[in-house]
Amino acid sequence: MIERLAQHGRRAAYVVPAACWLLSTSLLAASVTMQQSDPSAISGMPGFGDAAWWWSAGVLTLQAVVLWVLRDRPLAALLLVAAGLPALMVLGDAIGVGLLAVLVATYRAALAAPVRRLVPAVLGAGALVTAGVTAAGLRSGSAESAAVVGGLLQGLAAVGLPLVLAALVGARREADAALAGTAEAQSRERDALVQVVVERERTAMARELHDIAAHHLSGIAVMTAAIGRQIDVDPEGAKRAVAQVREQSTAMLRDLRNLVVLLRDTESSDPDGPVRVETLAGVPELVARARNSGLDVALETSGPVEQVAASGAIGPLAQLAAYRVVQEALANAARHAHGARCAVRVDVHEGDHVQVLVRNSAPAPGQALVPHDPGYGLVGMRERAELTGATLRYGPTNDGGWQVTLAIPTAPQTTSAEEPS
After folding, report:
1. 315 Cβ partners below 8 Å, 6+ apart?
2. Cα–Cα dist 143/402, whole Å
3. Which of 63, 118, 196, 217 is surrounded by the fewest CB atoms within 10 Å?
4. DSSP letter at 191?
5. Which range (124-133, 262-271, 330-339) has the least confidence?
6. Residue 319 and residue 177 share a domain
7. Rounded distance between C-alpha atoms, residue 227 and residue 223, angstroms
8. Residue 307 domain flag
9. Which distant-in-sequence residues (6+ apart) come within 8 Å of 112 by Cβ?
10. What is the model's pLDDT at position 257?
């Protein structure tokens, strides 16, 4: 592929000068033919047998050679090609055949060189063209003023038209480059946004896994500790505790299965039943499971909790966040405050917000705090609150316990009323 591109570049290097030479010499020959058929059509035009004609053909050939040899030095090529116009003054009115190479050289220079370096070369080329055309006009018998004006106009056109065309082509190239740069920047931005989304999904998955596993495993740890003491003195109680461990394990597997199903990219129904998304209405069941696992916890509600949960005033993501906050707070109490009494309160404030409060007292006498490494429970609570626009507060209480409070804003409920007629 690279070799083909190189070959294409080499072909373009000599095709343009060759085409320019072929066209200019063809015009030179056609001018002679036209002058022979009508001597008054072109003034001062030499014939095929004149030395001036062969001189002119040689100048046109040198212009093409300069275009090819100095293709990497466009400013020098422009000045040398334009210097051929004074040498072509012997053609009289047919001097225009030498302007083709000037047009090509000016276009190349305008595309390749910066404006600061281009201006002197363009002015020099324009002056040379003006001088050559003016001299040719005087040689063909034109009036001095007409020859000067004609030289100025042709000199301006010879360098002005290619400059305009090169400016348009350069602007198009810059626009294409800008579009390509914009497309590349948009591609990088999309990649960055995808990466952000992936990171958020990873964080959400880690948070869900932590909340599910921490809650159930905390209860299992408490119950298995009790089983170790009961198995000799209270076999029946140990059997009941084993049943509770099994219940907790089954619940954890169910919650993990629900999470996996939610993460699947499929519309097929789950063979084990519909996926359950936790809401505020599931908080009583959550508290009941914690109580069955041995945690001393009480639930208090204020207001129509189930109605608000089903009305859409709180979105499903916010309700899941509230459920997980209660779950994590109870798991923390079971792990770090053995024997403490816990209270869960859900208050529904109509038209304002829903407040979820989980409070545990200090550990029971003789129950020291369990040493533990810093975890991600509070971090997950805070992330859930920020994600749903809720307000989370947590910290120790005056009696040595711990309290977590989550305030979730509710969406305003629209009501319709008939206007009196």
Report:
1. 388, 411
2. 108
3. 196
4. H
5. 262-271
6. no
7. 6
8. yes
9. 74
10. 67
Q: Which of 93, 97, 105, 100 has its CA nearest to residue 135? A: 93
Q: Is the pLDDT of residue 345 over 90?
A: yes
Confidence band (pLDDT; 50, 70, 90) for 268? very low
SS3 content of the chain, % helix, strand, coil (to 5): 70, 10, 20
Structure tokens belonging to residue 322:
């509230």
Is residue 348 a contact partner of residue 304, using CB atoms and an 8 Å limit?
yes
**Strands 402-409 and 391-396, how do they pair?**
antiparallel
Contact (CB, 8 A) for 136 and 95: yes
Pairing of strands 391-396, 353-360: unpaired
DSSP one-letter code for 280: G
At 64-95, the pLDDT tens digits run: 899 888 888 989 988 999 998 898 888 887 88
395 vs 40, 207, 215, CA distance in Å? 108, 21, 20
**Spatial contact of 43 and 140, defined as CB atoms under 8 Å apart:** yes
Task: Answer with the one of 186, 213, 246 that is the final residue of a domain.
Answer: 186
Per-residue pLDDT reduced to its tens digit, 384-408: 788 778 899 999 988 888 999 999 8
Check which CATH number belongs to the domain holding 283 and give it: 3.30.565.10
Nearest in space to 15 (alpha carbons), one of 62, 60, 59, 68: 68
Q: 3-state DSSP call for residue 77?
A: helix
Per-residue pLDDT tens over the stretch 13-58: 678 888 888 888 888 888 777 777 776 666 667 777 788 888 988 9
Q: What is the largest CA-CA distance in the chain?
A: 136
- Are residues 27 and 135 located together in one domain of the fold? yes
Structure tokens belonging to residue 265: 């990219």
- Tokens 């002119």 -> residue: 56
Tell me how far the alpha carbon of residue 312 is from its chain's centroid.
Answer: 34
Q: Would you state the pLDDT for residue 406?
A: 92
Q: Which residue is associated with the tokens 């002005």?
A: 160
Q: Give the pairing type, strands 341-349 and 353-360.
A: antiparallel
* Segments forming the whole domain that contains residue 125: 2-186
pLDDT of residue 310: 82
Q: How many CA atoms, within 13 angstroms, populate the side-chain half-sphere of residue 87?
A: 17
Whether 151 and 284 share a structural domain: no
pTM of the complete model: 0.45
CB atoms within 10 A of CB 233: 8
Instruction: Report pLDDT digits (tens) over 252-267.
Output: 766 666 666 555 544 5
247 pLDDT more than 80? no
pLDDT digits (tens, 9 = 90+) for 366-385: 655 555 544 567 777 887 78
